[in-house]
User: What shape does this take?
Amino acid sequence: MGADNDLCNAAKEYVSGFTAGLATVITGHPFDTVKVNLQAHNTKGEVKKYKSAWHCATRILANEGINGLYKGALSSFIGVTFESSIAFGVYSQMKQLLQTGETQSGSPQLQVIIPSAAFGGTLISFILCPSELVKCRMQVPGTDHPTGPLDCALKTIKDEGIKGIFRGGFTTFLRESIGNAVFFSTYEYTRHYMHRKLNSTSPSISHHKKQLIDVGVGIFSGGFAGIAFWSIVLPLDVAKTIIQTSPSKILISRNPFYSLSMIYKRVGLRGCYAGLGPTLLRAFPTNAAAVVAWEFSAKLLGLRHIEQVDDDQKN
Assistant: This one.
């Protein structure tokens, strides 16, 4: 019975992560389309195709309508939902596995958070790499004009082989393993600090008010964690976009550090942070939505680890 219960709880963790992925794509894909176009077109020389994120978005809307902002969304739904399912599920399970009696008091422990998050990031990089390659090539005009995600994937495999669909894999691995460690560390510490402060100022609150507070804490801790994630790994994401959308098949062009050094020589540091505006604009609402959806669905499914942390902080 104990094994069946553990298996059921594990499945619930992954379902909760899946709902976080749905919230992420619905909220953030238009921002991502703008970011990818800025990265692909504003890193090639001194003359920028788009003056700003707003200019890029309005050009896309004028030329393609609202559908233009959701190009590649199907690929994102497939990739991001399963990515979130694995990232949140693996993180929650590994964190509980690594915790000892001394680290279950609710206080964040970096020695538990970082390996749990980095391992989840490593696993999801294998899903995200082909998914994002298809998404980026569909988002950027002029990349062989595929008619759909499947057509794009098949053309890539035909032209470059199976390895082609995993172009940018090493860069994706670096971005996700480092970024997830930053994300969950920021989330856990922000959430812990906010609950501790709120509980000290309002030790006795109604159940309804507690639910509203939980949503508010989820919004802020998730949004702040998303900003921390992208502030650290955006240069790697820029390199990944260049690698995945470049027509070049030369192996050195797949080296993220070589790509970043070339971007820096051409357009300076700003090139390494191309798409920063829409990325940070997207980071807060999408990650806030993801964390709130994750926490809410976890509680709805009866997973107790989130509530347990809050209860421990009151004692």
Observations:
- The chain has a mean pLDDT of 83.
- The two ends are 31 Å apart (CA to CA).
- The CA atoms of residues 1 and 219 lie 36 Å apart.
